[in-house]
Amino acid sequence: MTQEEVVATAKAMQVAMSPVRLRILFALREGELSPAQYTKTLPDGPPLTNLSYHFRTLRDSNLIRMRTWRKVRGAIEHIYVLTENGHEVLKQLEKTAE
């Protein structure tokens, strides 16, 4: 692994260390998901605006990407999937936990 790859992986893992973001990453490992869909799985979770922020942060860190979007009641809903980097970060975190 090059020095640049090590730095990029460390930054990605730092972003993923938020408990909310980590749960989002594990949920996305099961399949595509929008912030609104994820909100429905959390009975006492953060509001949609907070989750949207975390999804954007993960996207900006190249851990997830927007696969598609759709109009829902006049709003646009973004659907996300894990990137290769996202899968790799989860693998590294699981190795660390062992």
Short précis:
The chain has 98 residues and is an alpha+beta fold. The protein is built from five helices and two strands; from the N terminus they run H-H-H-H-E-E-H.
Q: What distinguishing features does this structure have?
A:
17% strand, 59% helix, Arc Repressor Mutant, subunit A, 98 residues
How would you explain this protein's 3D organization?
The chain has 98 residues and is of the alpha+beta class. The chain has one domain: Orthogonal Bundle (Arc Repressor Mutant, subunit A), CATH 1.10.10. The protein contains five helices and two strands, in the order H-H-H-H-E-E-H. Strands 1-2 form a two-stranded antiparallel ribbon. A hairpin with a 2-residue loop joins strand 1 and strand 2. Helix 1 crosses helix 5. The model has no long low-confidence stretch (mean pLDDT 89).
Q: Please state the second-level CATH architecture.
A: Orthogonal Bundle
- The CATH topology comes to Arc Repressor Mutant, subunit A
Total DSSP helices:
5
Q: How many strands, what sense, and barrel or not for the largest sheet?
A: 2 strands, antiparallel
Give the uncertain stretches in residue-range form. none
What global shape is seen?
A: globular
The proportion of strand residues reads 15-25%
| Average pLDDT taken over every residue | 89
CATH superfamily: Winged helix-like DNA-binding domain superfamily/Winged helix DNA-binding domain
Please state the CA-atom Rg, rounded to the nearest Å.
14 Å
- Which CATH class is shown? Mainly Alpha
Structural class: alpha+beta
Strand order of the largest sheet: 1-2
Number of strands: 2
Helicity range of the residues? 55-70%
Helix and strand sequence: HHHHEEH
Distance between the termini: 22 Å
Number of domains: 1
